[in-house]
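Lab channel / #folding
Pinned by the channel admin:
"Please post every new chain as: sequence first, then the structure tokens as a reply. Keep commentary short and put observations after the output so the thread stays searchable."

First post following the new format, from NK:
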Amino acid sequence: MSNTNEEESLFSELGKFEELQSPFHLFPVLHRELESLNRLKRNREKSVLVSSVLSGLHLGNDSQNQEETLDLSGTRLGNHLENPEAKQLCSKLASNPMDSSSRQELLGMLLEQRESANLQMSRDGYLLSMFELESPQLNSEKINTALYCQELYLFRLHEKLREMALKFSQKVQGDGSKKDNELREKTNELKQGVTYVKNCASILKTTPLTKKFELDLRPGKVGKKISNKELSEGYDPFSRRLSHLPLVDISLNQMLEIMRLLERNNPLVGYHQSMKHEILARLAFADALLTKDSKKEKEGADQFSKALIAVQQAMALVGYAPNRSVEIATVVRFGQIVYMVAKIYRLHQIPLPKGHQELMNKAVRALQKVSEDKNAKIIQQNLLNFKEQSGS
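Reply from TO:
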């Protein structure tokens, strides 16, 4: 094969996945793909309303080849799973795309053969697991499955980007030609993509849920009060994990809104809002660190500003002498986010936001009140070291 054909083949291989072509468009691309699945769901619901005859039809565009596209039946994924029961599950989902238990079983089969799952399989699994979390009926299994699928997908994407970066770098001749410059630029973009995806995986890494629990957020299913069990085994741990799944918008926002309405005097609401914005800020700055994109820097700064506002609202609900576990956790969270903003702004050589020096002083004083907490002591010392190094 000639060099030209080999180069065309490489670019063609990149074209199979938009996030391979443009790694920094990763989350917008996946958001769009997830919305396509939601659109299929809405279209089917409309069809069922028009005529009950349509309820047995296959969901999606029948003119599309299920081998080539992802739909809610998961057929493309099922055809590549080793478990002989996979195709039967896909048939069930084709008839009833809202069959959550069959989809969860299909995703479980993917995770069982994660060692041999390729990028396409892990990508399909990731999107299907995210679709599951669009439902207001949440449980520990769905959230853990989504966390495992996200981890698998980012690992396979990182692996593929590294492979493609190597292949492109081997084609660079250094002769200064237009084609050679294109290859060099693409090599550099792919290498940056490798670092970016690795950093995203690190930011989004979290521990799975250890207790089985279910929450039903559908209208009429939420009571007038959140019980202690629902809060400690549902809303709190679920929100914590969903913050690390950036494609999940609806369910997390819904939980935060319910907590805001029913637990307005609980610092946990601001705590989790701050975590959501912190994760989005760190992802934006992970992009900006490599691309030097000022829009991404501004996006990250805006998200950190929202995180700071949310955690300060939570701090306003903490007593003068914090002693409850939720109060101590909120104080630690406050110190954590204040220090993180200072550290990341310095890394990007951005002036600290107005009033941030005073926030650091306030955090140091607040952390002193909960100094028996190990994390509080560490964050307080980090803040003191930062202030000393910056001469403030």
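NK: The two ends are 63 Å apart (CA to CA).
TO: also worth noting, Residues 1-205 form one domain.
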